[in-house]
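User: I've been going back and forth on whether these two constructs are worth ordering. Before I decide, could you fold them both?

Assistant: Sure. I'll take them in the order you sent them. The first construct and its structure tokens:
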Amino acid sequence: MNLYTDDIKERLFVEVYNAKKLEELPKNVLYECREDLALVYRLSGYDADFKRDCDLVTEEQIEHWGVDADTLKSDAWTNTMVKRPPIMIDLLDVCRADFGRNHLENDNPVSLGISPLLDMFVITNRMNDNGAIYMFDDETMQKVANKMGGNLIIMPSSVHESIVYCEEHGMDIRKAKDLVNSVNQTKLREEEILSGEIYRYDKDSHTLSKAQVPEHEEILMPDKISMEEMHTYGYVWDGMLPLTKERAMELLDADVPLFKLYEDGADAMLDTKEDILSHDGLFGVERDSWINYLESQSQNETNGMTQEM
């Protein structure tokens, strides 16, 4: 009896973790680092020889099974793609927990340019279980890129799924990273967090790499309250700049969208003075809206000076 081919081979799968989590894993776990992430290999079921539930494969197990690492990795990838094939579904379908449709089942291009939300798609599997791994499968990424007609921006929203959109459509990289970090801090359990980085898949070179994300530019803050105070309050998305109630009242008629911020990380747009008075927490203005407001104020001042000359 060959222990590996008769029992182990068909129970191997590949998963992706944040590389920092390797420090928390048992020693000698077989892994392969890719940027800030690490591919690991899992044996499903019960390991009778080691008398424990199966977990991530270790070098000790590989030696015991009499198989080389490259063969094991290849078999794990084959099982993952065949037994847990990837699916590409609309972001709205994920919100409805509907994993029935799969855009990868045909070669038809997807419709883009409708709205930022509808231009985003989720890559996972039918179980929505450790589905972020497919960002490392070139064949899957090529299919997605062909359907979307260009290079891909990939948001690793958790170990279970990744969100993709065409580089020529959707939000900019800075906003995408802000969103991923906000989700990491407010919506996920620690073990589900994959990365705070944004990835880019180049369709022509078949390469996956971390996207270069520009730092937030230094701007005049709209109020005396700091970002750290907002984070401590419970709202952590850095795309929002905090306001006190008094400052929100001052900006209400300034033609800039304002929001009520909540301690659980949620927000809601406000429209009236009563909306402000009835809320006892913090308020906010989106960074991009505030920058546009500052630029318009500066332009108005420039125009006024020009007219006086």
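The second construct, handled the same way:
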Amino acid sequence: MSNSNTMSAKDRIASLVDENSFVELGAGITKRSTDFNMQEKSVPADGVITGYGLIQNNPVYVYSQDASALNGTIGEMHAKKIAHIYELAMKTGVPVIGLIDCAGMRLQESTDALAGFGQIYKMKAKASGVIPQISAIFGNCGGGVAVMAAMSDFTFMEQNNGKLFVNSPNTLEGNYTDKLDTASADFQKTASVVDVICDGEAEVFENVRNLVSILPENNNEIGGMEECLDDLNRLVPDFAAEVKDPAAALEDLGDNNFFLELKKDFAKEMVTGFISLDGMTVGCVANRTAVYGEDGSEQESFEARLTSDGCDKAASFIKTCDAFNIPILTLTNVEGFATTVEEEKTIASKAAALTAAFAEADVPKVNLITGNAYGSAYITMNSKHIGADMVFALPDAKIGMMDAQVAAKIMYADDKDADLAAKAAEFASQSGTEAAAARGYIDSIISPEAARKQLIFAFELLFTKSEYPIGKKHGTI
């Protein structure tokens, strides 16, 4: 249960939406159950406030769970209220935001509560890819409610009081809360559900408002078409020094240095998030080999390899961007796949899913090769071969099967008289940007400082892109 210092359910809505814009729906609805002395218990609004309002003049539907009413547990009517605003949101093409503070299923209502959970799951599944779904976790989000959060497109979590778990820490074999609090924000930031961990409720509201302002209202709209106040021809002189840490590079590229990074501490070797280019929202996927501190020093380093978690993170993000007509930018610097026994169990299927996500996305897709682009891993990372519309490369980028020295050793392993240095140089001549450009595999070699304006021109050119996919129900990869 949330502590007494947290906001009420109504206060949370008021802090999220534009002033005086919220209209409550179903305020008079309450429980029907009389089992287990429920007739003696007051459950105002059945523990959830539902309605609609505006965020920066963008319409949204909102539900906010009330932990003071039976711990915000979900019963029959509670679920019906949430399902109802989903019905309205899909009819009107408007995002749904859930402010979660819930102890789970209302045990007193038994199978009616179970049916309620199923009703919400069904509505969330139907809404997936039609309208953006955002969850913000302020208190408990356990059991089936955690599944609700995971079914959302974006999930935010408050650092101090937010708790996300399918099974509570004390029920996990060999674990207990004091040993490892698997429900805490510190644990969940390294897992795959939460996109952003926020320091306090005010930061949650700020992040959700920022996200809503750059997203389309639904899958038939285009989001983030705001007037750009940044210089379209602005150079980025530090870009070449930043490409190892794409979070820094993307922040430098974006309008007014805006970059909203998602799942920052999960699969750090893969960066995902949103920037704006000439007012257009662009989803970004990038390989990372370093994390820089505020002083510019290198804090962490990673191999330039695709991992299972990194592929999973990127594929999910790409599908979300494609569903909502958000163009995709890739910064590619990859030399292969992760090489551990554990990775070998999953990397093929995860890389396949990432490859399919890029190939199937029909939004504008631009790839900028910032370092090495080797082998099948490069093919997977939004290469022209699987459908990138435009591919650029920095002058010192390398494109090919593998490192030239390694290739020479493999090709001439049985030739003791071979001049490996000469053979490596010959192989390298086929791996440079000029060789790739001559074959049409990249469209242009650009200077690092001109990356912003070149990318803006590319996405403007692709703005009217239209593809008609072959008729099928869905892929199976």
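Notes on the second construct follow. The chain has two domains: 9-214, 239-397+432-461. The radius of gyration is 25 Å.
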